[in-house]
Design a protein that fits this description.
Blueprint: H1 7-11, E1 19-22, H2 32-40, E2 46-49, H3 63-67, E3 71-76, H4 83-90, E4 95-98, H5 101-113, E5 118-120, E6 134-137, E7 140-145, E8 150-161, E9 166-167, H6 176-180, E10 183-194, E11 204-206, E12 213-216, H7 220-234
Parallel strand pairs: 1-2, 1-8, 2-3, 3-4, 8-10, 10-12
Antiparallel strand pairs: 5-7, 6-7, 8-9, 9-11
């Protein structure tokens, strides 16, 4: 089955009120092209699940979704890096639901694996436990955390073949593989689309069974230039003059 699609086709599937998972970590390993097109779509009341918010300082990746008021609820481990989200939260336009990062990943993993819950000692005796069931196992208290799933997930890989097998490069392996399995419809944005058999099976980070559509994102040189400009502007990378 050929799973390649145009970005416009998959963005058309997004409807008001949907729950959307987005891969990446502080803008690295994020599906940049899909996020740009999603921000441009006239859609509202989204629930967005992402491990952390945008690149520090905002104005990148997830930031446009908050700036254009697309998101009603944000489920995350850290939201403070995005000024656009902080402003929306302070004005009451955005609800934020926090979880410790490891707990959030396990909730997503449980959603992808079909588990009914996960148990964790993290948060026992703190505000985190409010409204949650607790279990005592071996004399130790645990919180019962329910799984997380989404209507759609947007992940970012380096390469994918036309059947949906995804290869990752560098730290884009961060949250993308676990998110890929926890949605009803998963879109893989990649730098390069290849024919079946061109990706070594040992290099496949997400099997095609979890991917519904593969879309062409920025090429690798284009992506590298986007990050180079961003890191230089932020002062994290010094630009040399020949």
């Amino acid at each position: 089955m050929n799973k390649t699609a145009e970005i416009g086709e998959v963005i058309d599937r997004v409807q008001d009120g949907m729950t959307i998972m987005i891969g990446g970590f502080l803008g690295v390993g994020s599906p940049l092209n899909c996020l740009e097109k999603l921000a441009q779509k006239d859609v509202k009341d989204l629930t967005v699940i992402a491990i952390v918010n945008s690149y520090p300082g905002g104005s990148f990746d997830l930031a446009a979704l908050f700036e254009r008021r697309r998101v009603r609820k944000f489920i995350t481990a850290h939201a403070g890096t995005c000024p656009e989200a902080v402003r929306a939260f302070k004005s009451g336009e955005l609800e934020i639901e926090y979880y410790p990062m490891g707990t959030l990943i396990e909730k997503i993993r449980a959603g992808g694996a079909g588990l009914g819950a996960v148990v964790t000692p993290i948060g026992v005796g703190t505000l985190v436990e409010q409204g949650k069931e607790k279990l005592t196992i071996g004399g130790k208290e645990y919180l019962v955390e329910l799984p997380l799933r989404a209507d759609m997930a947007f992940i970012k890989g380096y390469r994918a073949d036309t059947t949906g097998n995804v290869q990752y490069r560098g730290i884009s392996i961060n949250s993308n593989p676990v998110i890929a399995s926890a949605a009803e419809y998963t879109v893989a944005e990649v730098n390069e689309i290849v024919a079946p058999g061109e990706i070594d099976p040992e290099r496949v980070g997400t099997p095609g069974i979890f991917v519904n559509s593969v879309v062409q994102g920025y090429s690798l040189p284009q992506q590298q230039e986007i990050y180079r400009r961003m890191w230089t502007k932020s002062g994290y990378l010094r630009e040399t003059i020949a």
